[in-house]
Amino acid sequence: MMKYWEMFKEENEAVKERHELALERIGQFKTEETVAEPYRSYFRKAAEFIMLAEKVYGMQERGELEALSLDEAKKLNIKLYEDVLPGNYEESFCNPAFAVAALGRDFGQYLAFLLTEIRGMIVYAYESRLTDMTILEEVLIEVYNLFESEEPELKEVKEVLYYFVSDYCDVMLTYRVRETLDPSLDFAKSIIMDSDLTDLRYLYRFGEYISDSELKIAAFLNSLPEETVRKMADTYTEGIRKGFVASGRSYKSKKTVQIRYHIGFERMIRMAVENFRKLGLEPVISRAAVGTVNRAAARTNGYHGTPANRQYDYDHRYDNAIYMDKAFKERKLSVLKVAYEECRTLAKAYAGPAVLETFGEEGFTPENKKEAFALSEKQEKLLLSYSNESMQIADAYVPGMETSFTIIAFPLPEIGDNFEKIFEETIRINTLDYELYRDIQQCIIDALDQADHVMVYGMGENRTKLKVALRRLKNPAKETNFENCVADVNIPVGEVFTSPVLSGTEGTLFVGSVYIGDFQFKDLYMEFKDGRVADYGCANFEDEKEGRALVKQIIMKNHDSLPMGEFAIGTNTTAYEVAQRYQILDKFPILIAEKTGPHFAVGDTCYSWMEDCPMFNPDGKEIVAKENEISVRRNEDPCAAYFSCHTDITIPYSELDRIEAVHEDGTKTAIIAGGRFVLPGTEKLNEPLDSLNN
């Protein structure tokens, strides 16, 4: 079988002369003095890193990386990432604050961006992508030339960096589209399937930063019985199949599925690959994107490890401020469309993503640095416009109505001393009896379907008081507002959810502590008026403005306002009991946390781009509440109908007083009271809660 890097042999040969010339020129930086200080130190540092990446590239080509001992592989990994590791980052030119202090306000930000892009060469070296390495080397030389003899105008540097991104967008974005759809690009898959997974040296062959967490989780999975890991993999892969079945569609015409996961779970992922192949689906396993053109704010859109430094990632979250203008937006959309057209056959065969999330990491409180790039209001609007329009392009080639997904989560060792017990409990949570929950949840749905609206009240210091308006059913015998979520795609089991009517939905949502992505929000609040966010904030910073800015970035995704796209009642009291017993509720990912109380999502509904696909509950009733007053515009103006985001916020049972279904005549049916399920037929859900008091 052809090695992954052999696939690039012809392309690498074509760029060989350019590469040799660039490398020769960069090699001269360490002795030349044509660039004055402080810039000379910066360029020599960049050149030093490039030479290290080139060394790795050569080792990969000669097959030497596989031969490294565990200690040698670990030392090389640290060497590659040491510049941005905590402790070193404070004096790294990648750090905008240090770069500005050392190189000046004018150039510091831009040169920090350039070095951050150059660090992408780690990935390109491991994957033998010489074209990408050469492009970065050439742009460094171009900027270096500007600084020779005299200090350039800032606009000259900005222009070089702008056109570096714009000119090579067709290379970077086109490859990104392909690598998320093409199973023949099997760099990671070959490591997973062909390595001796008991020899942890394999972890270092991915080229990602490998922390103690990846080493520990891989060793732990190796210690588990075969049947345990098989159970994990089976639950994970069955989600895709069940998703198609639940929506009444067949996956038989599909040929690929994308696996996204955290490095260290390879033993389980290998079994998942085998399972998917039995279903006729060949896995695509692509890396989480690197490079500013493709990189997402949360770098989890592929396989990934523990971030080398979350502050480093945070500092560069808005590097696209350098080039985001209308011309670039239009160019990127044009390239995206061409890229999908070139991959049309692959796109048609795509069944959807299978995602493995992790949890347990320490909370991250970012430092907002004035030296880091920030988007202007105009750029924010351009970015949101791009997001919506790019979704339309993607949906044209990979229609949401023709795909499914699955998502599951497991803990990492950082969760604490009880890691192994928590891992065992998580397996139990992920495999709960879905039939039991299906029947209990149907009782809740039957009560909610008779309501005009729902009232949700917080307990104690939680000041939540929310009215959620519901759609009036035309034919209650055949229709329902709520989906009965029984762990087909969204694992574990345990929620009923709907798309609220925006008009009449109003009040305050408050949560004392909640994790959203990498961020732990404290005293998070949102005010709703006619179903739209009218105000928001959190207590993460002394400065209220910083708290608002964090909420806007992470939850609002830089929108000024968002609608309530989902209202749900979580029923997984087993997960809640485990969380309370081990004091890890604030560590649960939203995937599990949303099942441990009522939750609300801001942004699109759960059915965005799939509103016209018939969906039915296990009882045969059709789910009709799939759109709201905004998404109903989708056929006229998709850009006005969608926001390209959906962020869940959960109120835990411990902060919840009651949930009431309120009928048109004002009478009420209690679903939860005093933090306990009181609706007839739901009593069994209280058993895990009762065990907390025993």
UniProtKB/TrEMBL annotation:
Keyword Hydrolase: yes
InterPro entries membership: M29_Exopeptidase, Peptidase_M29
SUPFAM superfamilies in alphabetical order: Thermophilic metalloprotease-like
Biological process terms in GO annotation: proteolysis
Enzyme class, spelled out: hydrolase
GO molecular function, one term: metal ion binding
E.C. number: 3.4.11.-
Keywords, in A-Z order: Aminopeptidase, Hydrolase, Metal-binding, Protease
Matches recorded under PANTHER family: AMINOPEPTIDASE, AMINOPEPTIDASE AMPS
Name assigned to this protein: Aminopeptidase
